[in-house]
Structure formats: structure tokens, C-alpha cells
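User: For my dataset I need records formatted as: sequence, then C-alpha cells, nothing else. Please produce one.
Assistant:
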Amino acid sequence: MLSLLAIQQDMRYNKLSITTRKKGRNRMDDFREWLSDNLRYFLLGFAILAVVIIAVVGIRIYQRVAGSQKKPTDNIRVESESTSTAGETEAVTERTSESEKKVVSSEKETEAETKAAEAKETEKETEAKIAEETETETSETHASETQATETAVTETAATEAVRDPGYLKTTVTLNLRTEPDGTVINSYAAGRIVKFLGKEGSWYKVLVGGREGYMSSDYLQEVPYEAGMENEVETEPQTEAPAPIYKTLKGACYLRAETSKESQILGTYMAGTTVQFLEDVGGWYKVSVDGMTGYMGAQFF
């Protein structure tokens, strides 16, 4: 039995070895076939690489040879350029020396002319100074006289400006008020004479018709004193009727029959309506409008 087993094992081993040898042979045959098919491509690649290397080496050799040939030419050019530069420098130097000589000679001539001109100018200045001194003395004399005259005139004008006006005349129909922008006392026609009492800003305190009050200085003109003016400002002429006074509403307002909010309403008037002022009755204005006489609140004016 052991011998049979050994024989079977030998037979199996022999079969495996034969199979392995056949596979090895087949692989070698495949590699040879692949190499024979692709060998031409390997040879072509090696040939291209060799051509590139040869080209690069040839270009470098050519550059070195060309560089060695250019150096002598460059040296010749540098020498020629330096020679030409030296020649130009000498020419410029000669020209500069000639120009300097000309400049020196022209400077000498200019100095001589300048000295002659300065001498003439000195003579002229001396003559001018003498003439100016003479004129200055004369003008100073006239100036002192003129200044004295102007000083006297200025002092006189200042004295007149400081002096308050005595009597004034109204240039338009003008209201007499209890204070600046205050309640109207009366109205006076243009040309009425008033007496000046004092000043508060742009307002004059005046006496007219026996009453003291304030009038706007913009509509008063100073007049010289005449006999009888003091009597005119102390009395109210009997023939002079006071000019009507008009006021304008700032807002809508009722016209009432009495000075009471519960009194009868005579009419309604809008802002901007102008009414004739007749009298101030304790916060109510007695007015006339559209032929009716009644009362309106003073705060609406």
C-alpha cells in the first residue's frame, strides 16, 4: 500500500512539473512575440532622443564660436567711440574758451556803459530831489492851511450832529403812539409840526397838539424854528379832524354788538379784512366795517 501511494504521488508531481514547464514556455513565447511587435517603436524613440541631444550640443557650440568672434568687433567699436568722444570734448573746450573771452569783453563794455548811465541818473536824482524839496515845502504850507480849515468844518459839523433837533415836520400821515409800537393816540396829517423831546431807538418822543407820545423817526423831518411853533405844538387846531385809522385782521373774527362774547353777532370777517378803528375799550376794539359799527377782540389784530 505504501508503495502504491508513493507511486501516485510521483505521478502527480510529474504532471505538475510538466504543466508548470508548459506555462513557462508559453509566457516566454508571448514576451518574444510582444517584443518583436514593439521593437521598432523603441528604436524610433531612441533615434529621436539622439537627434535632440545632437541638436542641443550643436547649438551650444555655435553660440560659443559666435561669441568669440564678436568680442574683437566690440573692442574696436569702444575704441572708436572713445576717440570720437575725446575729439568732441576738445572741440567743446575750444568753443567754451572763445565764448568766455567774448563774455569777458562784453562785461567790460557793459560795466563802462553802466557807470556812465549811473552818473547821469545821479545827476537827474539830485535835480529831482531839489525840485521835490521845494514842492514839499510849498505843499506842506498849503496842507497845513487846508487841514486847519477842514478841522474847523468837522468840528462845526460834529457840533450840529450832536445837537438834537428842536422842531420836526411829519412827511406823511403819521400816528402818535403811547410808546414805540404802542397803542395809537391820534393820527396827524403830513406837514404837522411837532416838538422833539427825546429818542428811543428809531422812535422820537414828541409833543403835538398838547399830547406827548412817540412817532417813527423815519417819517419826521427837521425844520428851522419859526415864531409861533411852540403854540402850535401845545394846542390842537379846532379845524383839524383826525385822520381815520385802519387795522387789518390777523384771523377770522365776529363783529359783535357789545363788548361780550355772549352779545349779538353782527357779522363774520376773515383774516386780511381791513376795518376802521374807532376806540379801544378794554381789550375790545370799536370798529366800523360795511356800514356797521360794533366790537372785535383786540387779539385778532
